Amino acid sequence: MEDQAFADPSLAALYDSLNPWGPGDDFCLGLVREAGSVLDIGCGTGQLLRRARTEGHPGRLVGLDPAAAMLVQARRARPDVEWVLGDVRVRHWRAEFDLVVMTGHSFQELVTDEEIRVCLRAARMALRNGGRFVFETRNPGARPWERWTPDRVHEITAADGTVVRVWHEVRGEGLDRDLVRYTETYDSDDWPAPRTAHNVLRFLNAGTLENFLTEAGLQVVEQYGDWERGPLTPNSPEIVTVARKA
Questions:
Q1: Of residues 5 and 42, more confidently modeled
Q2: CA distances from 6 to 45, 75, 97 (A)
Q3: Domain parsing of the chain, residue ranges
Q4: N vs C: which end of the chain shows fewer Cβ within 10 Å?
Q5: Alpha-carbon distance 135 to 159, whole Å?
């Protein structure tokens, strides 16, 4: 899960352990391999672009993230990728990329209509003609937040051997209109006190997503309900969207 806690360098160092490579990364890596130039918005520690470069991708790879601590991890691993600090409100590109991606459900961190509109306009502006914008959101029909309970504790071991426990708790009744507010708590026997981040995610259905994309000049060309390219159904876990400039 994604949140603002990773602005903390010590927690940013845990990000890859908390979010190991998975089917969504494989899906996006396949698209990156086909693209000459790629912009990853909200790249975090840059796992996707790092893997692509390690495989020998010869083109331009740009990772954009507002958390300096995350980019420290990215630069340390692959200094031969272009890592950019900031977000789409202050960093702009014009028709420079064949592919723009947002992974790790980072699109759901856009909680207002204006934030969504700004991001989608920036993604479209960054694409060359024929370029694709790919992102995923959790399907609200599957109600994933009901499984974000304090009894589901995830335990990881940091590089220095510190054992860290992580759990989540939804605040309130769960989905409030299309927003879910939750806390993410990190704790270790080696720390003086737990660290808790307060986060908000937005859950949009496929129709609302398409309306925002159309308004921004983007057209949905493929949409899936999972990373195996299964059909999107009311209870599919994901809404995986591939869009092009209209």
A1: 42
A2: 10, 16, 27
A3: 4-140+203-245, 141-202
A4: C
A5: 30
Q: Give the sign of the dihedral formed by CA 201, CA 204, CA 206, CA 212.
A: negative
User: Which has the closest alpha carbon to 162: 2, 18, 45, 14?
Assistant: 14
Which helix (H) or strand (E) element contains residue 199?
Answer: strand 195-202
4 CB burial (10 A radius; 0-12, 13-18, 19+): middle
* Alpha helices per DSSP H over the chain: 9-12, 15-18, 23-34, 47-55, 68-77, 113-126, 206-215
Q: Which CATH code fits 4-140+203-245?
A: 3.40.50.150
Q: Tell me: the pLDDT tens digits for 107-150?
A: 999 999 999 999 999 999 999 999 999 999 999 999 999 999 99
Rounded Cα gap, residues 229 and 27, in angstroms: 9
Specify the pTM.
0.94
**Dihedral sign of CA atoms 13, 17, 43, 31 in order:** positive
Tokens of 78: 């692959």
Which of 4, 65, 55 has its CA nearest to residue 26?
A: 55
